[in-house]
Amino acid sequence: MKTYARWLFAASILPLAACAGAPKAPPAPPPPPPFAEADATFVEKASVANTFEIATARLADTRSHNAKVKAFAAQMVSDHSANQDKLGAIATQHGVTLPTDLSTDEEKTVDDLKAETGRKFDRDFLAVQVQGHTDALSLFQAEAQNTTDADLKSYATDTATTVQSHLDMARSLSTPTHARHGRYHHHHH
């Protein structure tokens, strides 16, 4: 930034005679294009979904005693945080701030999970993740297919892949008896 300021300063001491005639005001930058209504709705839902996944996944660190569940939760916090940053960058280009308010139901789910530990927590936590990621998957897949916004299209396509892998992990952790058969499932990255 310093070199930029120095450059501005140097430019300001050039002779002003070059600007003969009335100086024109520089054109104002165009306001960011608003999202199409469907895209705006998607961005809101995706933001809240990320917020909810991060909030529930953070609980696993202290509530779960299962190393696999904790590792899965940590992966989710990392993926959904990166995902939220990407979404935030796209939203900013359209003059939108991401909403992060959870619905009453989601708040209640977080509170319920906070009250649980051990196996009960693991079971309910994984059930919440399977449900949440199933909903999120259809949200992102629909956006990837329907949006005309190039940034959102690539964002939704990438995210659908991540969400699918989380869903697969949540499902395989929910049914430990079938874990042995899970080896041949391909994880897309």
Automatic annotation (TrEMBL):
UniProt key word Signal: yes
Domain DUF4142, residue spans: 38-173
UniProt keyword Signal, yes or no: yes
Keyword tags: Signal
Signal peptide (residue range): 1-20
Record-linked InterPro entries: DUF4142, Ferritin-like
Pfam family, one: DUF4142
Protein name (Swiss-Prot/TrEMBL): DUF4142 domain-containing protein
